[in-house]
Amino acid sequence: MAGISSVSILALAFHAGASDLAPTEPKAAVAPPAPWVTPRFFNRNSSEIADDSTADQHWLLIERQVNPAENESFYHMVWQIRTVAGVQNGANLSIDFNPGYQSLTLHWARIWRGAQSLDRLDTNNIWINSS
Predict the structure, then answer these.
(1) Predicted local confidence at residue 36, as pLDDT
(2) Which of 12, 21, 38, 59 lies at a C-alpha separation of 20 to 30 Å from 72?
């Protein structure tokens, strides 16, 4: 590992759906996933995780579930940070949505360092660019 004492794994889950609301100041809600969602999980200690020592980050899970009846999509992404450059590049997350016709609900942002799981979904650090 190029300068990282332990590998970090990040997991982010959110869903975007159609909004009947009139365009207002964009906001992101925080709530558990809808009942129709069945998130996939993975074994963080699996020997199947590829060992590409040249990659800054390595995707472990990219999942999308769609509920056409409600016009909603659930996204769940997990990636492994492998280098100091990966930490720098992965420090800020960006999710694009149009508040004129979409809503955004965040479910979790977790970091694993070894066996320790840290919940890092901090609503005070959510910044929405309305331009």
Answers:
(1) 92
(2) 59
Nearest to 28 by CA among 119, 89, 98: 98
Q: Percent of the chain at pLDDT above 70?
A: 68
Tokens describing residue 29: 């809600």
Q: Which residue has the tokens 């960006």?
A: 94
- Helix-strand-coil percent breakdown of the chain, rounded to 5? 10, 40, 55
pTM, full prediction: 0.73
| Backbone φ, ψ for residue 2 (5° rounding) | -80, 75
Q: Cα 97–36–101 angle (5° rounding)? A: 25
Give the pairing of strands 8-18 and 28-30: unpaired
**Alpha-carbon 130 to chain mean position:** 20
Per-residue pLDDT, averaged over 43-57, amounts to 64
Q: What's the gap between Cα 13 and its chain centre?
A: 4
What SS3 state is found at 124?
helix
